[in-house]
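QUALITY CONTROL LOG
STEP: pairwise intake check
CHECKER ROLE: data steward
CRITERIA: each record must contain a sequence immediately followed by its structure tokens, with no blank fields

ENTRY 1 OF 2
RESULT FIELD BELOW
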Amino acid sequence: MTKKYQWLVLVLAAILFVGLITNSIFPNKAPNLKVSSTTGEAMMIYDKNYKFTIINFWATDCPGCIREMPNLADTYNKYKNQGIQIIAISMSYDPPNQVLNFIKKNNIPFPVVIDADNKIAQHFENIRLTPTSILINQKGQIIDQIVGEIDFNKLENILSKNI
């Protein structure tokens, strides 16, 4: 291999290494999506006016989702005046009438978005199971993705560090 090609391989390896390091140090950014809630309220998935955002992908036929909704509501009510945003996003296979009935029956206090065409879930790439919660800091960085029910003690610790 000539010196010219050795140099090129070295430069490409350095670029690749820096890219890998950057991706592991700096979290993924939340998509900049505008969505509408079931009440018609327009909002951004990431809004820098909030100190912390929880995006919760859920379904009305998901036992874990149903179990964690009261705790999500409690968390929202506890922190809503401290800059927390919670958005529940129902999965595309969830019938809208069931979602609306669930919201009403359970007095869900935070916005719920129906992802009828699955476009929101696609922006987060790995949403395959419910519940899945995405935790986003004020800089728009995804700091955690929780597949399964949220451990609310751990969430309290995360919130105390971010708000």
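ENTRY 2 OF 2
RESULT FIELD BELOW
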Amino acid sequence: MKVPREFAIGTIRFSVGRRTTPQEIDKAIEEISKVVSRLEPKAEVIVTETKPEEIKLTHYTHGLGCACKLRPQVLEAVLAEMPAPIDRNVLVGIDTADDAAVYRIDDTTAIVQTVDFFTPIVDDPYHFGAIAAANSLSDIYAMGGRPLFALAVVGFPSSRLPVEVLQRILEGASAKADEAGIAIVGGHTVDDTEPKFGLAVSGIIDPNRIVTNRGAKPGDVLILTKPIGTGILATALKRGLLDSETEERLVRVMSTLNGSAAEAMQQVGVNACTDITGFGLLGHLYEMVCASGISAQINASEVRLLPKVVELAAGGIVPGGTLNNIEYTKPHVSYQGVAQTIQIVLNDAQTSGGLLIAVPEERAGDLLDALKANHVDEATIVGRILDKGEHPIEVLG
């Protein structure tokens, strides 16, 4: 059947199409017990037979990148029970579903902090580490902050994967952190059933220049700095349906830091920003709409898409996280002449996506110029902010 070995060890079925003998049953129990024993966490490191360069990380996880987040409905219910912080120095907390927490130190200095980790989104360990690092740093950039240092968050199945894989993950993350001008100075590891990696990033920000998701105003233009479709492409990659050229494009987009876009944003001055990750473009826009008390309009035809995303979505290559997002945003979005496939893509669960920026219309041209000057070449106007209306979000075809 050509089932990959990594899949086969996860599901074991014993059937020979006839009555089995006691000897055959004993033999089956012995073989199954060997597999179970190998999967159980051990004190010692188990060296697997698979060579590190042959390992496909997406075969070792049930979810992909930010698509493995808790469903937004579940997260909302959990956070609703959390007590609100009473410390007046907490400038940004959990109440508006923003990208990072901000804590004031004095009148000119605040700490901005975030933590983000997930399961592999690509097969190559080095690229996974780089993408996870870029994704974690993005939360700091989205708030207008400057990252200072990071701690690694690691879950690793040492009984299933050789430690060389973890070393390569850390190498990729360290290279991306170095590109951002910071160091990974520590971290924490646990033995896990599947690989997970990310960073807890600490940064600094001027309390008077924080960019939140709650400052959008009617008349603002919405600018998105990266194309979308990473969740769908990653699902195709896991299923062996992605060509090498499209895979390279996917890796390049996800591993690109949002630092240059954030610099342009701070240079021009904007009203609101969020980064687009696991809840998709419409899910994160809905968070901005709710936090700002306004409505928004998206022109679907203006949203840049990664190659082959529409064809793959039409063929049913859609991650579970994207389907959850569609269910979550459905009551809040009015689609006008938008094909169902495009609706799926607009809800696609992104990993290390771009910044969604609300900027006054008179500054939109300046922001696009500044982004271009910083080599953010795929930024485009995708919609605008409206007065609060019947529908939080309206999407035009």
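INTAKE CHECK: passed for both entries
DESCRIPTIVE NOTE, ENTRY 2: The radius of gyration is 22 Å.
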